[in-house]
Amino acid sequence: RASRTPGPGSPRGAVGTSPLVRRGGSSSSSRAPEVMLTRERYPVQRLPFSVVSEEDLAAFERITPGRVVTDPEELEASNVDWLRTVRGCSKVLLKPQTTEEVSHILRYCHERNLAVNPQGGNTGMVGGSVPVFDEIILSTALMNQVISFHGVSGILVCQAGCILEELSRYVEERDFIMPLDLGAKGSCHIGGNVATNAGGLRFLRYGSLHGTVLGLEVVCPAPPPQVCTLLHPQVLADGTVLNCLTSLRKDNTGYDLKQLFIGSEGTLGVITAVSILCPPKPRAVNVAFLGCPGFAEVLQTFSTCKGMLGEILSAFEFMDAECMQLVGHHLGLVSPVQESPFYVLIETSGSRAGHDAEKLSSFLEHVLDFGLVTDGTLATDQRRVKMLWALRERITEALSRDGCVYKYDISLPVERLYDLVSDLRARLGPQAKHVVGYGHLGDGNLHLNVTAEAFSASLLGALEPYVYEWTAGQQGSVSAEHGLGFKKKDVLSYSKPPAALQLMQQLKALLDPKGILNPYKTLPARA
Ligand SMILES: O=C(O)CC[C@@H](O)C(=O)O
Ligand SMILES: [Zn+2]
């Protein structure tokens, strides 16, 4: 299973390998309890797609010789999401190596009315990367070649199945960094990152993939299957690939079609190659981990930080006291600062260590003097930087060990970010084991997680639609960075008006007229 071997330890993980970086790895351990089939747990009906036949398997064998997987054990890992909450029953997984092979697969599946589930590293949070029923899994695992890298512009062009951490290493050797970084970096594929518009830990500094992705190569199933080489604006109607993998910083010619595919979660086309702008590698990285006496002080620390650290600020993350208890209890991580109601992690990235250290120390002096921060620690060497990041990055893993987890990934006005957590804690009372709030405060992104010993319909009823209504009441987003996938597709209307939903359905029908691509995901089922 070379293609699904997890990457090496996260550069920011704790010592040893963090299970977080094993997302999408062999999750089918025979000792793990069986995950319930999605069709048994959720009210979802299979759409009238064809069922894979022996002739289909023979056709796939001609398209991707030796790379048609039907072994049930090998399929199991790709049928289950890494959170082990949803499970499909696909009988076949294809491993194309080239864009032409993807094009042939989609042409064939379109003609035969066979549903297809594109899959990268299978590290998503919303059940978007695994089949719901028996969709054919189209894995990008073997599409893992770097196509080009330009040392002056920092523009990287690569196939969709490259693992984020491997790309990071590749560009870091050349004095650049990837513009995004996630806990799942050891397994996630860049194509999946782009397809889901992954946010992550560098968003505050380098912005969204809508800005850093310069070009895409996408295969759409519309007849005839079209390879849209959006790396340069060439749309090919005959299925051939024009080798035109150059990228431009500026291109203002008509509609920016690549944007449609960023965040479309594999429902409009299969991304086969990506052109992305990499920032220069910062010479000095510092991390401060601070304890704050209240959320008001967290906000004031953030304002002060923006004012005093300005251009060197590269991350502002927060977590509450319950998060710290969970990483301590389940992972044995020890808080480096005194117990506090809130903690913030501030990262600076700059070009002169002395200059950054000076700025950071006057900032720390200020926040301590004004009582915004009660205790703190600073790391400049790589080992301690990684240790401090692990406290924040491994919260998801600690939560997974705490029991059944209800996840909400919400964008809110930063001043109201924690109100929902306090409100829910009071509303749920002892029904919940833990109600925690953490996330990318600098981006206004709250990760609200609730744990319980086991799944409970009454707890779910107390959470939903309450959380979504609360969020809509603040004009927030019900999915800040995780996407909608299978689990959140029916709540899209809390964040988008009916006219937007209708246009999305029309675009889907235009690019994928038979609806074979990642069905049951992203868009609500039509009435
Ligand atoms: O598990 C979650 O809710 C968040 C996961 C991830 O987006 C993070 O920021 O750690
Ligand atoms: Zn996040």
TrEMBL record:
Span of domain FAD-binding PCMH-type: 86-281
Location(s) in or outside the cell: Mitochondrion
Entry keyword annotation includes Transit peptide: yes
Transmembrane portions of the chain: none
Region called Disordered, residue ranges: 1-35
Reaction equation(s) it catalyzes: (R)-malate + A = oxaloacetate + AH2
UniProtKB keywords: FAD, Flavoprotein, Metal-binding, Mitochondrion, Oxidoreductase, Signal, Transit peptide, Zinc
MF terms (GO), sorted A to Z: (R)-2-hydroxyglutarate dehydrogenase activity; FAD binding; zinc ion binding
Broad enzyme group: oxidoreductase
Cofactor: FAD
EC nos: 1.1.99.39
Keyword Metal-binding: yes
GO biological processes: malate metabolic process
Extent of Low complexity compositional bias: 22-31
GO cellular component: mitochondrion
InterPro entries linked: FAD-bd_oxidored_4_C (IPR004113), FAD-bd_PCMH (IPR016166), FAD-bd_PCMH-like_sf (IPR036318), FAD-bd_PCMH_sub1 (IPR016167), FAD-bd_PCMH_sub2 (IPR016169), FAD-linked_Oxase-like_C (IPR016164), FAD-oxidored/transferase_4 (IPR051264), Oxid_FAD_bind_N (IPR006094)
PANTHER family: D-2-HYDROXYGLUTARATE DEHYDROGENASE, MITOCHONDRIAL (PTHR43716)
Entry's family note: Belongs to the FAD-binding oxidoreductase/transferase type 4 family.
The protein's role, per its UniProt record: Catalyzes the oxidation of D-2-hydroxyglutarate (D-2-HG) to alpha-ketoglutarate. Also catalyzes the oxidation of other D-2-hydroxyacids, such as D-malate (D-MAL) and D-lactate (D-LAC). Exhibits high activities towards D-2-HG and D-MAL but a very weak activity towards D-LAC.
Protein name (database record): D-2-hydroxyglutarate dehydrogenase, mitochondrial
